Automatic annotation (TrEMBL):
<dbReference type="InterPro" id="IPR003111">
    <property type="entry name" value="Lon_prtase_N"/>
</dbReference>
<dbReference type="InterPro" id="IPR015947">
    <property type="entry name" value="PUA-like_sf"/>
</dbReference>
<dbReference type="InterPro" id="IPR046336">
    <property type="entry name" value="Lon_prtase_N_sf"/>
</dbReference>
<dbReference type="Pfam" id="PF02190">
    <property type="entry name" value="LON_substr_bdg"/>
</dbReference>
<feature type="domain" description="Lon N-terminal">
    <location>
        <begin position="17"/>
        <end position="216"/>
    </location>
</feature>
<protein>
    <submittedName>
        <fullName>Peptidase S16</fullName>
    </submittedName>
</protein>
Length: 227
């Protein structure tokens, strides 16, 4: 059984979770996200999660001002309405007092309100119902335009002089392919939030294709000539 297979319905998930505001980071169901934890408030959050249900919510600060404010440990920047919860599935302490963790995505959530918590990290009441399908592996995967995504991925890699493990890519399921590429994509916070909020897997696939097409257009030399 996979680490997140224990969550089969939304009632298996808690009504309140700790949240980790992190600009530009994206977590999606059944994807893994490694994180380097060094701030005391988030080291405490990890310790508490290990003693509890191991669930942490990843959410982005909402807007440029909130992103800037998130660097201040005393600030409480506005949070995006939606995030994704992950189970803490890997934990390593380093000699310089950092903690390296891996979150494995469970399901997305809507923030219903913030708790008046005494912990140094923030906690929120969350709602899961509209993302219940996240708990079903490969939900909607049969609708994914896989070949179009692979085609645009190949163009992007060739344009940027990058390589990929095509054998692994070809063996990946549609859900793993779309979500993993979304997580590692080089796009900014707004684009990552749009990928998170895409309603279906194919919606996310189309968003990823569109973002990559725009990136390719921006990297192409202009056809305009000056006479």
């Amino acid at each position: 059984m996979g680490s997140t297979d224990r969550y089969r319905k939304v009632t298996d998930l808690p009504a309140a979770i700790p949240v980790f505001p992190l600009a530009g980071a994206l977590l999606l169901p059944r994807c893994q996200l490694p994180l380097n934890i060094f701030e005391p408030r988030y080291l405490k959050m990890v310790d508490d999660a290990l003693r509890g249900n191991r669930i942490i919510g990843l959410v982005q600060p909402d807007g440029e001002a909130a992103i800037a404010a998130s660097q201040d440990p005393d600030a409480k920047p506005a949070l995006a309405k939606f995030g994704c919860a992950g189970r803490l599935t890997s934990y390593v302490e380093t000699q310089d007092d950092r903690t390296l963790i891996t979150l494995t995505g469970i399901a997305r959530f809507r923030i219903a309100g913030e708790l008046d918590a005494t912990t140094p990290y923030r906690q929120c009441n969350v709602e899961w119902d509209e993302f219940a399908d996240d708990l079903t592996p490969e939900f909607g995967a049969e609708n994914v335009s896989r070949e179009r995504l692979l085609d645009i991925l190949k163009q992007y890699l060739e344009t940027n002089g990058l390589q990929a493990d095509w054998r692994t890519i070809k063996l990946s399921s549609n859900e793993t392919l779309v979500n993993s590429l979304s997580v590692i994509s080089p796009y900014g916070p707004r684009e990552k939030q749009a990928l998170l909020e895409s309603k279906t897997l194919e919606d996310r696939n189309q968003m990823l294709i569109a973002l990559t097409e725009m990136a390719l257009q921006q990297s192409s030399p202009s056809d305009t000539t000056v006479q």
